[in-house]
Amino acid sequence: MAKSNSWISHIETFVDISSSLSQQTASRDAISVLLKSDLLTIEVLVKELGLYLTTTDYIIRGRGILLLAELLTCLAAKPLDSITVHSLVAFFTEKLADWQALHGTLIGCLTLLRRKSNVGMVTGSDAKSLADSYLQNIQVQPLGKQDRLLCFEIFECLLNHYPDVAAKLGDDLIYGICEAIDGEKDPECLMLTFHIVADLVELFPDPFGALAGFAEDLFDVLGRYFPLHFTHPNDDFVVKRDDLSRALMLAFASTPLFEPFVIPLLLDKLSSSLPLAKVDSLKYLSHCSVKYGPDLMAKHAKAIWSSLKDAICHSPQESILSRVSESPDDVGFLDDEIAKEALLCMQKFLLLEDGLFLSLILEDEDIELMLRSATSVIKYNDIPVENRKKLYALGCILSASAKVSISCCNKMFQHFFPRLMDILRLPKNCSTHACISDNIFSTFQQLNFGALYLCIELLVACRVLALSSENLPSASISVDETWCALLQQIFIPLTEVFHFILINSTSQDVCDADIYCGVKGLQILATYPRCFLPISESTFENILTIFVSILTAGRGETLLWTLSLKALMEIGAFIEKFHDSEKTSSYLTIVVEKVVSFICVDYSTMSLPQQLEAISGIGTTGPKFMLQATKGLEAAISANFTEASVKGNLKSVKKLVPLLQCFSNKVLPWFDKNGGFEDVALRFSVSIWDQIECNYTFNIGDQGKELLDRMMETVKLAVAGCSENNQGLILEKAYHVLSNTSFLLKESMPSSVAMKIEDSQLTQSLNPLSCRDEWVVSLFASVIIALRPRTPFQNARVILKLFISIFHKGHLPVAHALGSVINKLPLSRNIIDVSSACTLEEAMDIVSKMILCGSTPLRKSNVDNGNESPNRTLMVSDDDLVEPNAIVGLAWIGKGLVMRGNEKVKDIVMVFLRCLTCSKLGNTLLQGSSEQDAYSLVMRSAADAFHVILSDSDVCLNKRFHATLKPLYKQHFFSTMMPILLTSIKECDSPTTRGFLYRAFGNVISNAPLAAVLIFVLLDGLSILSMSVADRDLTYSLLLVLSGMIMDESGREAVTDNARSTINRLIGLISYPHMMLVRETAIQCLVAMTGLPHTRIFPMRTQVLQAISKALDDPKRTVRQEAVSCRQAWASIASK
Amino acid sequence: MVAGLINANPIVYEKKERRGRSVPSTADGDEYSVEPIDQLEVFDHIRDIKDPEHPYSLEELKVVTEDAVEVDDKHSHVRVTFTPTVEHCSMATVIGLCIRVKLLRSLPSRYKVDIIVAPGTHATEAAVNKQLNDKERVAAALENPNLVEMVDQCLAPSYD
């Protein structure tokens, strides 16, 4: 047992209202730990508490009771014996009468009531007496919010955990609850209130029982909250309006006893002008009607229907056009929430009791009127706006009710369809084409838009119904249903009508709305589930042919064209979804082949963008169609490529670009998403290489530049998505073609490809590449760029050497490829099993040997030529030869190295720096102008190399092309480079050189992450500048900038991240001997640093204090004064 | 705690004007010249210490004056003589402790600081002096959290 004096002090602390909240909590927790570990029993505790629980000072008594209650809350999971529980309950029951110290008592009661049976529950009789005392003593309304909340929780707990007790209480409980919840306004309490009502109703289910007498009173209390409306913005409360509204709805619907009060209230609110009230009423109405059941609702049906009708008809409308153009399965077409809810509500009623409600709809005179007014005018454009609205509303009602169930659908069809057919003047019974052809074409002028629109609405609705029933086999629809029979009789003339509209779409009489109807109608008919409407193959094919002929009619991209394509895509998607093999084959032959055929022939009525849109659109509807489309596209590409490359056909060149664009932007991503990418990509890449291989007379010319770029992009994408194996195949193929290129064949009788390449370097360096070579090399580079790191890469050395010799000519893709190779080569040999492969180290050896050492072909060629040409090559300090193109190449290699985090990048950067700072270069700049240009060109490229290294590239070395990325490589490079650059800038005395150094500096800074940059540069600049006396003013200025950053809100983040280095630098500056202002400002900055998060700066505290104590002995008085306050600031962060 | 104040109604004097900031000149010689710690600087450190009993500073109560500070920068020695407001003032040791702590925190560590009660101004002058200049006892006093809290309150910067 714990020593009493150890925990009695805790009690005192808790009861003492002058002690802080945290102290109270701590002392309570301390006691609860003792209780939990059985070092202290409840009995002892209560005895010790004794006086605190009974004293006449109500504040202290309240605290004492609260302590006991909170301790019990802590012990909720600890088993207590029944005697303890009993006496505790008795205590709290008694204390309920003590209104001055109620808070603790309420907590105590709640905690006890909530105890689970396995840890010692309150017995029924105890709960009963507690509830009695509660109902007798507690007045909920006048209490504070927290206490009211507790009161409601006790009610809820009683109802849920002690239903027997609650039931015994009967009227008293119901009355007490009514009284308690009356006039409650706090959302949190209301939430509980609504739950309590729902629970209460559950407890007294008997319709003639205890509750019946109170139903009106109870609803009187509840009904006032409807519709729920927050006068303050929603965010202020834990409970959201929607949740609360739902809870109220559940309470409303909890018992049919509320029905006489709820429905009139809802109908009343439905006619209010507040949109929120309307939406809520409709939601409640749907929910309540389901709960109350059809018998109770029947008497309200008429009133409800008329309210619903008003809500649907008088809501703001969107245009019919947008309605018609929606996809058929899309139920959420209405933006307008009132009408949407009203329709939903109507559907609920129809589901509930279709006979009565449906007859209300069918026999409604308003509906009849609406139908008449909507169909009274023939042309859409002639219908007045008011009637258009009516038409739209009627369409909504018809389709919504037809969607509900099969019987509804039948009745709607029976009632409306024959009439609509009459209006349209279509024969009602006709199943062949023959009997209609005469009268249709004469009636087009009289084709009634309104009837057509309603017709389509009905068709859409029953299609949705049919589809949904297909998903639920239990509710299958037989073909003998009335609507099916009706539809079968009529669909052929309907097809003709829709077709007829589309044929005449160019005529003046046909407006956009008609076109919508026509396309939509045909699309619906074509996508009917086979089992309900056995459309013959010929009709289906007929519809497809109609659409295809619209596509190919060559009228440009009209509304009709776009809609038809969309409809075709819908039909394709439908076929794909329902695996209809016969329809699939007709779709393939009629639509896909037709569209594909257009792209393969030169002449077409469609423009190329249209063709591509059609082919990619139709392809995306299903794998079979996409495969077909892709074959066509590939055939077109290869045909045009042959045409372009062999004959130099400019037209083909121009056509190829959009073709490739379509292939890389639409087709490849689709396969990537839906599978099958590898095959397509592999086939495409191999076929391109095949064509290049067989074609030795390549003459595309300068116009081909764009094509080449596009082709490279496509090849890169295709290769990048392939697996290692397929990449290996493509690479092999490409290498095969490369090794037979003309510039490698020029050499006489070479023994091997490798030898050829080695030898050719000497002669190649100065000759420009032929067109074919250019293509071969560029595409080969593209393949290399897109390789995965683990793809077996053979002949690496040969390729490297070849690339190096080519990029000296300024061939950028090759430079990219080199960078990629260096980035992805394995570090060690054990992964590689091919002898001709090489490791990164070997590759770097080759690179440095060829570029940086004296044995490069460049230098030899210059020597061979006999004339020194400084325009092309330049001597750098220790006899290295570097030219601008080589620098660009080196930069990409450097980028590859930086990204994989390899240290060798330093060697490359050093070359750039030597180019930048070479004194010879700087001096020669003063001489002849041509030489000067050349030198400045080199320096400029060297400076820009830093941009290449640090910036992100789209064409290579990114995630898409599988680059090896080390996290934070930019920061790393930045922090290693910056000191070197800064020193060079500082040491540089020539203004031109300094200019280029700044250029490099700018490139590095602008590409590195900014926050890290600034603070980093500042600190580093300070450390370097503070070393010499001459820069003391600059040091001071930089320090002022730093102090500005520390004070500034946004800069402070960066400083916080670098707190350690910043403080270290400032400490260094405290002893800066050359300027008092620097020392003073540094100390002031240190004071400001104490405003940063203490977790960051606390580790530096000792260090700062030591440094500051030295500053106390500073020669200058001002510094000493600042030091005193700084010391104070840093010393006190420990005590806060 | 003793009920009531020891000196319920002290005389309050005016504050002296502060020394302005010396204008730094640009000459190199000035930059490197040394400003030795002088009487006024030390006085500046202690003049704003608040009296433990009253919301007045030691300067306002004339417990310390500039003349009562002796500084020997070369030998790193400071002697502060303070005058309690009343002879029997039991706060004298606390005031002395405050002065000592403040100087401990503000002066370079090379300094030796002596703090004495002005002769003839306090009933137990010798005892107080002995207590204030005994390193061990000062250190022991600073181990006492209550005393440290009191000292910190006196040393807290005022913003008037």
From TrEMBL, chain A:
Keywords: DNA damage, DNA repair, Nucleus, Repeat
Entry's localization field: Nucleus
Gene3D superfamilies: Leucine-rich Repeat Variant
Keyword check for Cell division: no
GO biological process terms on file: DNA repair; iron-sulfur cluster assembly; protein maturation
Broad class of the protein's primary localization: nucleus
Ranges that cross the membrane: none
InterPro entries assigned to the protein according to its UniProt record, in alphabetical order: ARM-like, ARM-type_fold, MMS19, MMS19_C, MMS19_N
Domain of life (superkingdom): Eukaryota
Gene Ontology CC annotations of this record: cytosolic [4Fe-4S] assembly targeting complex; nucleus
Domain MMS19 C-terminal span(s) in chain numbering: 705-1089
Family annotation (Pfam families): MMS19_C, MMS19_N
Functional note: Key component of the cytosolic iron-sulfur protein assembly (CIA) complex, a multiprotein complex that mediates the incorporation of iron-sulfur cluster into apoproteins specifically involved in DNA metabolism and genomic integrity. In the CIA complex, MMS19 acts as an adapter between early-acting CIA components and a subset of cellular target iron-sulfur proteins.
PANTHER family linked: DNA REPAIR/TRANSCRIPTION PROTEIN MET18/MMS19, MMS19 NUCLEOTIDE EXCISION REPAIR PROTEIN HOMOLOG
Family: Belongs to the MET18/MMS19 family.
UniProt-recorded name of the protein: MMS19 nucleotide excision repair protein
Organism: Aquilegia coerulea
From TrEMBL, chain B:
InterPro entries: FSCA_dom_sf, MIP18, MIP18-like
Pfam families with a match to the protein in the record: FeS_assembly_P
Residue ranges annotated for the MIP18 family-like domain, each copy included: 41-112
SUPFAM superfamilies xref list: Fe-S cluster assembly (FSCA) domain-like (SSF117916)
Keywords for the protein's UniProt record, in alphabetical order: Chromosome partition
UniProt-listed GO biological process terms: chromosome segregation; protein maturation
The keyword Ligase appears for this protein: no
Protein family per UniProt: Belongs to the MIP18 family.
Protein name: MIP18 family-like domain-containing protein
Organism from which the protein derives: Aquilegia coerulea (Rocky mountain columbine)
